[in-house]
């Protein structure tokens, strides 16, 4: 087992830590550990300047816990991408490819399992690029995930995505006229996964709903408390 995987078993949230602390490039899972609920792969936001330690979930632990508590038989991990990298373009590009590798290798190991990919902020950009492919000016290109995975990837959940654009069927939240800093020019490439995607973006989040209004970007930090339960309810409707 590579990375750290958590699962809910008989009401107890267990933590299985790995013997290998270097981030793995794939995720292969013994068949007796395949999720019977969902397998959630969560990509956190960029590490802040003063952040210490190596926490691949950070504030997204709250959503992981809710998924594990409310969807029995679920497993989850934080994607070990370079969330501490200075170069966020490299982090998004390499992270999107890493996420694709995690999804495809996991489903090769566990073909009957359902996967949800979840991302916050920088992790939202890489999650959407991993699914739809890149179509933002300035972001390094990644090809879309093969649409044959649409039946297994039942949730694509993002909070505060810098590639956000208005008027998409998968948009959730209060942003109706703003744009992400790196708007997605070809949302049509997301179409095979459209019924799985929920992109949360609120007014006041200057990263996904630029430029109005200016309130110190408070909305960018409010998604977990406001929407985690809605996310879990959505995932349940997709199973
Ligand atoms: C997607 O996967 C299918 C089934 O494995 C394959 O036949 C097809 O060529 C793939 N498409 C692309 C664009 O790679």
Automatic annotation (TrEMBL):
This protein's record includes keyword Disulfide bond: yes
GO biological process: antibiotic biosynthetic process; monocarboxylic acid biosynthetic process
Span of the signal peptide: 1-26
Keyword presence, Hydrolase: yes
Keyword annotations from UniProtKB, A to Z: Disulfide bond, Hydrolase, Signal
InterPro entries to which the protein is assigned, alphabetical: AB_hydrolase_fold (IPR029058), Cutinase/axe (IPR000675)
GO molecular function: carboxylic ester hydrolase activity
Protein name per its UniProtKB record: Cutinase
Organism the protein comes from: Penicillium canariense
Lineage: Eukaryota, Fungi, Dikarya, Ascomycota, Pezizomycotina
């Amino acid at each position: 087992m590579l990375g750290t995987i958590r699962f809910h078993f008989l009401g107890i949230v267990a933590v299985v830590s790995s013997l290998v602390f270097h981030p793995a490039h794939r995720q292969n899972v013994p068949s007796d550990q395949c999720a019977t609920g969902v397998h959630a792969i969560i990509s956190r936001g960029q590490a802040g300047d003063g952040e210490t330690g190596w926490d691949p979930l950070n504030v997204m632990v709250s959503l992981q816990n809710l998924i594990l508590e409310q969807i029995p038989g679920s497993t989850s991990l934080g994607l070990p991408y370079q969330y501490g990298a200075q170069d966020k373009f490299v982090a998004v590009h390499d992270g999107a490819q890493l996420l694709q590798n995690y999804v495809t290798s996991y489903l090769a190991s566990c073909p009957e399992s359902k996967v949800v990919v979840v991302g916050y902020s920088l992790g939202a950009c890489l999650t959407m690029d991993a699914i739809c492919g890149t179509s933002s000016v300035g972001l390094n290109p990644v090809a879309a995930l093969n649409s044959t995975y649409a039946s297994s990837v039942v949730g694509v959940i993002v909070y505060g995505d810098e590639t956000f654009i208005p008027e998409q069927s998968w948009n959730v939240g209060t942003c109706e006229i703003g744009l992400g800093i790196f708007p997605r020019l070809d949302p049509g490439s997301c179409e095979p996964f459209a019924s799985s995607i929920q992109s949360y973006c609120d007014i006041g989040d200057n990263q996904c709903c630029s430029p109005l209004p200016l309130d110190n970007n408070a909305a960018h930090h409010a998604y977990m408390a406001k929407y985690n339960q809605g996310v879990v309810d959505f995932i349940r409707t997709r199973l």
